[in-house]
Specification:
CATH architecture of the largest domain: 3-Layer(aba) Sandwich
Order of helices and strands: HEEEHEHEEEEEHEHEHEEEHH
CATH class of the largest domain: Alpha Beta
Helix content: 25-40%
Shape: globular
Radius of gyration: 19 Å
Strand content: 15-25%
Largest sheet: 5 strands, mixed
CATH superfamily of the largest domain: Periplasmic binding protein-like II
């Protein structure tokens, strides 16, 4: 259990699983560290500035750690590797634009939602054929592996779904006309539009979904601490300040 002084003491909740924080405490380190797993290819939620991983989720993670009185360590990894890393105790929680999803909920527990998102379609500006989701039938669609967009595209009739480890790679393939469209979350789409004048976003929203933090199954103690921190962030103005910092500039 997160922040338990003695591993496997009468902490309950985690059903005997040893988390990354437990491992550090058990080695006698003076200050506990909360390990955040993310995928830094998802601006403005998480991205790199030089060697540093920054973004809305990262700042939110720092706030959570501060409220818990621990240090935060950020681990950048492939998006589809986040849940397995959580299950293995290599990370303590996930903030990565992660959608609350019944399939993922089988392997992790979700916090209260902290952001409402939607899936959108990107095409090149000269593409007049694709005007909405109905036009994606039998098309070649780029997605980020393991995302909601990936699952959504898999259910489009006749579609050939091309999975990429990061959205940047899909953008390049779209520009080179090797795929017909991309299905991706709204906020990253906005960033890619700012950086690439030859692509456009269609108006149709394919989904309405919620982002949340994820912890190991049955780790109620950490989940309660994260939920308390998220609630406080919204009450004390921190959440609104982060929205303004990352989405209103």
């Amino acid at each position: 259990m997160i922040l338990c002084i003695s591993v496997l003491a009468a902490c309950g909740g985690s059903q005997g699983k040893e988390t990354a924080v437990d491992k550090e405490v058990s080695t006698g380190e003076n200050q506990k560290t909360l390990i955040l797993g993310t995928n830094a290819d998802f601006p403005p939620f998480e991205f790199r500035e030089g060697e540093e991983v920054v973004g809305f989720d990262i700042d939110l993670g720092k706030y959570i750690a501060e409220e818990m009185g621990v240090k935060l360590q950020v681990e950048d990894m492939a998006f589809d590797g986040l849940i397995p890393a959580l299950q293995a105790g290599k990370i303590d929680f996930i903030l990565a634009g992660l959608t609350v999803d019944p399939d993922k909920a089988k392997n992790a527990d979700f916090s209260d939602p902290y952001f409402t998102a939607s899936q959108m379609i990107l095409v090149t500006k000269d593409n007049d054929e694709i005007k909405g989701s109905n036009d994606l039938v039998n098309k070649k669609i780029g997605v980020q592996l393991g995302t909601t967009g990936d699952s959504l595209a898999q259910n489009i009739e006749g579609a050939e779904v091309v999975q990429f480890p990061a959205p940047y790679a899909a953008i390049l393939e779209l520009q080179n006309k090797k795929i017909d469209a991309i299905v991706l979350d709204l906020e990253p789409c906005k960033r890619f539009l700012e950086q690439n004048e030859d692509i456009k976003m269609l108006e149709e929203e394919l989904t309405q979904e919620e982002y949340a933090a994820a912890v190991q199954k049955d780790d109620k103690e950490l989940l309660d601490q994260i939920n308390a921190a998220l609630k406080k962030a919204k009450e004390d103005g921190t959440y609104d300040a982060l929205l303004q910092k990352y989405f209103e500039n």
